[in-house]
Amino acid sequence: MFSLVSFLPRAIVQGIPLLLGCVGETLNEKSGSLNLGIPGVMYVGGICGVIGAFMYENSGGPFNPVLGVIIPIITCMLGALIMGLIFCFLTVTLRANQNVTGLAMTTFGVGFGNFFGGSIIKLTGAEVPSITLTATSKAFKTALPFAGKAGAIGHLLFSYSFMTYVAIVIAVLTSYVLNKTRMGLELRAVGENPATADAAGINITRYKYFSICIGCMIAGLGGLFYVLDYANGVWSNDAFGDRGWLAIALVIFSIWRPNWAIWESILFGGLYILYLYIPTGSNFAMKEIYKMLPYLVTIIMLIAISLRNKHENQPPEALGLPYFREDR
Amino acid sequence: MDKKVKEPLIHITKRKMIPKKQEWAIRLGGILAALIFCAIITSVATHLNPFAVYAKMFEGSFGTERKLWALLKELGTLLLISVALAPAFKMKFWNLGGGGQVMAGVLAATAVMITMTDKLPNGAIILLSCLAALAAGALWAFIPAFCRAKWNTNETLFTLMMNYVATQIVAYYIIIWEHPKGSGKIGVINQTTHIGWLPQLGGNPYMLIVLVSIVVTIFMYIYLKYSKHGYELAVVGESENTARYVGINVGKVIIRTLILCGLICGLTGWLLVAGTDHTMTTTLEGGKGFLGVMVAWLAHFNPIGMILSGFLLCFMAKGGSEISMAFGLNRSYGDILTGIILFFVIGSEFFINYQIHFRKSHRKEAADV
Q1: Which residue among A101, A311, B3, B248 is the one 20 to 30 A from B282 at the CA level?
Q2: What is the rounded distance in angstroms from the CA atom of residue B294 to the CA atom of residue B302?
Q3: What residues in A contact B176, CB-CB < 8 Å?
């Protein structure tokens, strides 16, 4: 009854938006910024991609799949970049409180997504409250040509759209940059102890701006993946749900390691859809309990890392604190 | 001596103190700038006259007595949550779990009202649901506080996660207790008998929650400003090491403060279920746990100031839903405006805390000499 071959791919596809959001948030947190605006950033990324795709699909010309993929990605990243810049400007330049700024960004981002989503829905005059971007979604879901011929293993490994692999590459690359390059070392120094990093001649502001903006753009791609790939190009308001917060939970669960997050995003994705595969019969209530699991395991993880108190598993030391050179 | 030292164009220093008047001038300036910015965005994005939009927002908040009471109910709820969060924030304990603590209270109150209706008299049910809600809210705040005090677990993330655990448990019980069967929701609890419902003061369903919020706000103002507890938590917030040095038991202060916070959140949940809404949904707190964070922070954790900042956000929310109806805009337009105003107000705090010095031109300095 329980088929791994059908379960695993769905868990992976479910997990990829979380993975992208998590990698973006990890980059933020490694620079010492607890960006609670990530759910908003993912919303904005998603809707900006939809706006780009919508304008291109309705521009009248013939549909070119390559452009159909590139345009939404560019608009998505631009939207997410602007959100990142707002966060940087307020928290780094103006030294505002990160939690408050982040929550305001989430309010703004979710409102922004739903407003423009609703506006486009009204433009199309559709009867159902959603936007459907079939051509763009088809371009996004192009799978490897030999996927169908390689049997169950091939199905497990190669049946995904290119964005899935891109997401995994981004996660591995981020992990490499963070841990194996000088840039990553300096970035981690900024997140651990900005005063020391400053004394060592590292430009704190530049590192924070870059890591937050790049992180936000990656997280924005998560929103884009959700709409154009997972949801088959159907945008409906609030459908993205609480995935942004799950991405933040995943950062903790992966102990700030993007390469671990790859596996754990699949686990989270699996937990998220587990109720579909567990024979509960007509007991819909249990479904809600299963949906709680990702948060519960995150809490357990959070307590466990604080209990073991191992130095390399702790959150960045300066997480959530603004840096002002003249402060003591 | 001729060596040129590169001097930055802008130099920022921290302000020591700023006159209250100037502080408020900066803050109002921020809000004004935000309103002008919103007006520009509105006329560009929707081609509407921004003044007509603002007029409609006023109408939506104060237009009729009913609308005014709806605004006051929202403000009362938000104020209760913000006031509950304030002492924790003052202690630098980032309790983002206000929403979850309210939902815990909601769940406990609903549980008593549904399961005990046939077994106890009305008065006992009201009392029991209140106590259950208080206990549940306190428990929801106690768990992260205990872990923080004991093992220094990151409370920001812990309380954040507790929100969703509470929401999912509520979702679970909504299906268990759904009424009528198959509707996927709990209708109005005890609709005909009104068992467990709080009495309406002065014939107005919202009067009670507004009064309670005022009382709690005043209590918190006194608690923070004049009590020993309030002083201790302020010391812990300034420096845990100092607190330890002067003999304050930091763990005890953290747990005690968070239990107080959870009690008020639980009380809010009880008032929502037994007093105004008489039902349980997963969105009953409506994101106020997060809004409360912003309200408390904008007011610098001063309970009286929270009335103002809470009012601003409630006005934006109510006004936003009014303009969406009046102009056929999406209901999320209010969220966008709220977000923009928040960005400006958050940004304006910088000019209160810091001072900017521009590089003086050297020619002028030479003339001075």
Answers
A1: A101
A2: 12
A3: 285
Binary contact (B347, A96; C-beta < 8 A): yes
Dihedral angle over CA of B9, B12, B17, B18, nearest 10: 50
* Cβ <8 Å between A104 and B147: no
What is the per-residue pLDDT across A148-166, written as a single tens digit (0 to 9) for each? Answer: 566 666 666 777 788 888 9
Mind telling me how many Å the CA of B295 is from chain A's nearest CA?
A: 9
Question: A143: which DSSP letter?
Answer: B
**Rounded distance between C-alpha atoms, residue B112 and residue A229, angstroms:** 45
The DSSP result for B97-112, as a single string, is -HHHHHHHHHHHHHHH
Report ipTM (2 d.p.).
0.87
Measured CA angle at B167 (ends B166, B171), to 5 deg: 115
In sequence order, which ranges of B116-197 are alpha helices (DSSP H)? 122-151, 155-176
Q: What is the mean pLDDT of residues B80-102?
A: 92
Q: Tell me which of A59-73, A96-110, A202-216, B119-133 is least confident.
A: A59-73
A161 phi, psi to nearest 5 deg: -80, 165
Residue of A18, A90, A115, A309 best to disrupt the B interface, most CBs of B under 10 A: A115
Tokens of A159: 């049946």
Kindly state whether A105 is in contact with chain B, defined as any CB-CB distance less than 8 angstroms: yes
B12 contacts in A (CB within 8 Å)? 324, 326
pTM summary value? 0.88
Q: Could you tell me if A46 and A226 are in contact, meaning their C-beta atoms sit under 8 angstroms apart?
A: yes
CA atoms within 13 A on the CB side of B47: 0
Domain boundaries A4-313, CATH class:
mainly alpha
Which one has a higher pLDDT value, A186 or B20?
Answer: A186
Task: Quote the DSSP letter at residue A93.
Answer: I
Compute CA B137 distance to the chain's CA centroid, rounded to the nearest angstrom: 16
Mean of per-residue pLDDT scores for chain A: 85
Which helix (H) or strand (E) is B230 found in, with range?
A: helix B228-238
Check if the beta carbon of residue B95 is closer than 8 Å to that of residue B261: yes
Domains, chain B? 75-318 (1.10.3470)
How many Å apart are CA B256 and CA B262, to the nearest integer? 10
